[in-house]
Write a structure and sequence with these properties.
Shape: globular
Structural class: mainly beta
Strand content: 35-45%
Distance between the termini: 15 Å
CATH architecture: Distorted Sandwich
Number of helices: 4
Number of domains: 1
Radius of gyration: 20 Å
Largest sheet: 9 strands, antiparallel
Length: 383
């Protein structure tokens, strides 16, 4: 029997407050820390590094400074066996030409901006077009294609800081933007991502992490059996180029209602205009924040095959759920695994797509003297 969403949210709040009790029951035999090693070279000869963060339970998250990407996430299944649940590649070579955004920090503006333009303070800015008629994830050379500066942080939990300076005019965006992202692997098997940015000129910003998850293990096949909950009464429908119409519509009575745990594949092939536009799910849900500040429960994914559970908390107003509708058998990932159609899903915490062109959406404007901050937590457990 499905648990009512309000009850589930209350239970999740207790879980967050008592994380040491709710953490997966693994023997604490691993030595927490960070290992650094080569991840290959870019075509221009630039050496790229891989940082493996390990907590006391043995959970491991590998991150590269190319695109500030999550390369792998190793967490236990219900039997305690570790497995990698993040799609990706074994070296930087394939990431350089990749268009999937596997594991990357997407920016300067994650998601889409209509026709690659927006107006700010009376000035119209033009961005590269790289997704039909629109600009996607920052343009042709977004943050996913940048070499970030990495620094290991000392503390109770292994953490990696990645910084980037995006100059004025980068991909058409105004202002020199200083960006910092901190990945932390915590003792309760969470991956915490903290974002910070400042600018010297008014600009727009929307950052997210673009990890593709398969909780049965990367390369294991379809994600359609995954059972999903999204804490959202509304979503933002789009036109046929996947740009929001500006309307905020109830999920009730639609295939977008995940208020109760529902199998991802249950309605994905229904005759529905929005599903047809994206060839599946690739939409923004308006999270139920109830005017709360700080972290709120956003989504939960449960894989009945492995018993793995992924719970997402965020400070952001929206979340993009994407079901890997454009993955194909031509994509060969780690260990020679084929990443075919709908073999990975994303839960991208974010502001809404095309917000600069919709005054009724939460603002994504960042001015000098202000600080952009957001936090997202991906917590792993088993059932």
């Amino acid at each position: 029997m499905a648990i009512p969403l309000r009850t589930e949210i209350a239970l999740l709040s207790v879980m967050m407050a008592t994380a040491t009790v709710a953490a997966p029951r693994l023997r604490a035999t691993a030595k927490p820390g960070i290992q650094k090693r080569s991840f290959g070279k870019l075509s221009n000869g630039t050496p790229i590094q891989l940082y493996v963060l390990t907590n006391k339970n043995g959970m491991q998250v590998a991150i590269t400074n190319f695109g500030a990407r999550v390369v792998s996430i190793r967490v236990p299944d219900r039997k305690g066996k570790l497995g990698d649940v993040a799609l990706g590649y074994g070296s930087v070579t394939k990431y350089e030409d990749d268009t999937t955004y596997f594991g990357a920090i997407a920016g300067r503006y994650a998601n889409r901006i209509a026709k690659g333009k927006f107006t700010l303070d009376g000035v119209t800015y033009h961005l590269p077009i790289n997704d039909g008629p629109n600009s996607l994830h920052g343009g042709k050379i977004g943050f996913d294609k940048k070499v970030w500066t990495a620094r290991e942080l000392r503390g109770a939990n292994p953490a990696l800081e990645l910084t980037l300076v995006s100059p004025n005019g980068d991909q058409g965006y105004p202002g020199t933007l200083h960006v910092r992202v901190i990945y932390t692997v915590t003792a309760n098997n969470s991956l915490r991502i903290q974002y910070r940015a400042t600018t010297d000129k008014p600009t727009v910003i929307n950052l997210t992490n673009h990890t593709y998850f398969n909780l049965d293990g990367e390369g294991s096949g379809s994600i359609l059996p995954t059972i999903l909950t999204i804490n959202a009464d509304y979503y933002t429908p789009t036109d046929d180029t996947q740009i929001p119409t500006g309307k905020i519509v109830s999920v009730k009575g639609t295939p977008f209602d995940f208020l109760k745990p529902t199998e991802v594949g249950a309605r994905i092939n229904e005759k529905n205009t929005q599903l047809e536009y994206a060839k599946g799910y690739d939409d923004n849900w308006v999270l139920n924040r109830d005017d709360k500040k700080g972290l709120v429960f956003a989504a939960r994914a449960y894989d009945p095959r492995s018993g793995r559970v992924l719970t997402v908390y965020t400070t952001e107003p929206g979340i993009q759920f994407y079901t890997g509708n454009y993955l194909s058998d031509k994509i060969i990932g780690k260990h020679g695994h084929v990443y075919g159609y709908r073999t990975g899903f994303t839960l991208e915490t974010q502001h809404y797509p095309d917000s600069p062109n919709h005054p009724n959406f939460p603002s994504t404007v960042l001015n000098p003297g202000q600080v952009y901050r957001q936090t997202t937590v991906f917590r792993f457990s088993t059932r």
